[in-house]
């Protein structure tokens, strides 16, 4: 099938066999797995997974590709969900009671952050996630406090997942080649995230990083005073990127006790 990648869907199809096999090695699919792939495209990775796992699902928005996938894979081998991943209910995929869902995909760069937040809502039902993302986004996800890359995405995802940048993928591995490097990230949901209300944490973190050049006392003016910051173990003179995820959680809990 000759499919012209559609810019509005953020389509960059992985074509490098060596990179594909490296990704499969990192994922390490098992016969008992229930796996869902987001944005399978022309099925380069799907073909390497479908016969290695017990139950394979894909979520694809492009209707032409949905037709292609259904034509090339029998319904007994592959369940095709014609849907927008941002709206799709991943909890609707049936998984045996003793097992959890595994999620993989080459995520469109234009929706990567909102999609990661959407998936966080089902983290307790997920064994692991392996994604191809823009390298800069992965660096923000795994960044440590004190680095320029540390921000809202770092805090919110590190609260729910252990994450690791596995390896970098150059632009020429794709068709069409993107203008940036990509990277594979492994995300393993934490068995026991620090107790906190996710929506309230999001409010604190979003306000904290809305003015990165200011100190945290000024960033959170009207939400938290200096004494509350100190009580949460936060130096009021620090900038938001210098404050660890655990301290943002402590502050959120203190503000909403």
Can you give keywords for this protein?
single chain, 257 residues, alpha/beta, Rossmann fold, Helicase, Ruva Protein, domain 3, 2 domains, seven-stranded mixed sheet, two-stranded antiparallel ribbon, 10 helices, 9 strands, 20% strand, elongated, methyltransferase, RNA binding
Give the topology.
Blueprint: E1 13-14, H1 17-27, E2 34-38, H2 46-49, E3 55-60, H3 63-72, E4 79-82, E5 101-106, H4 112-120, E6 126-134, H5 135-142, H6 152-158, E7 161-169, E8 174-175, E9 182-189, H7 198-208, H8 216-219, H9 226-231, H10 245-255
Helix pairs in contact: 7-10
Structural features, described:
The chain is an alpha/beta fold and 257 residues long. The chain folds into two domains: 7-189, Rossmann fold, CATH 3.40.50; 198-255, rRNA adenine dimethylase, C-terminal domain (Helicase, Ruva Protein, domain 3, Orthogonal Bundle). The chain is built from ten helices and nine strands. A seven-stranded mixed beta sheet has the order 4-3-2-5-6-9-7. A two-stranded antiparallel sheet has the order 1-8. Strand 2 (34-38), helix 2 (46-49) and strand 3 form a beta-alpha-beta unit. The longest helix has 11 residues, at 17-27. 34% of the residues are buried. Residues 5-10 have low confidence and may be disordered. It comes from Oxalicibacterium flavum. Belongs to the class I-like SAM-binding methyltransferase superfamily. rRNA adenine N(6)-methyltransferase family. RsmA subfamily.
